[in-house]
Design goal:
By secondary structure, this protein is mainly alpha-helical. It has helices at residues 14-44, 50-85, 96-102.
């Protein structure tokens, strides 16, 4: 079961924390590489253990799925960081005259009759 953890860091520390998350996944990628090499060696054997290869492939795929999920989380964190680092948009001023000019009546105001 996967759970989501939440904690806060200073805005300037976000890239460093993402680096740590990515580096932790590098160990898993290296292990996947090791399992792939084992799998290919098993299949090259004179009497290959197909069942063992299937189990290793399944393990590799599950690990790669977790790696992909973590990288997706890192991407999301960095998108939020990028957005937080952008200057805020200018706030509109409350100018009654400009607001009056923008208002269009949904009907025509009746003119006074000349009778």
């Amino acid at each position: 079961m996967r759970v989501s953890l939440q904690y806060s860091v200073d805005l300037e520390e976000v890239p460093e924390h993402v680096i740590d998350l990515i580096n932790n996944e590098w160990d898993n990628i290296s292990f996947c590489d090791h399992l792939i090499n084992e799998c290919t060696e098993i299949l090259k054997a004179e009497d290959p253990s197909i069942n063992s290869s299937i189990k290793k492939i399944d393990r590799i795929r599950k690990m790669l799925g977790r790696i992909d999920l973590r990288l997706s989380e890192c991407e999301s964190i960095l998108k939020g960081y990028e957005k937080a680092m952008q200057p805020p948009p200018p706030q509109p001023t409350d100018n009654l005259e400009s607001n009056y000019e923008k208002y269009n009546t949904p009907y025509e105001v009746p003119k006074e009759s000349t009778k």
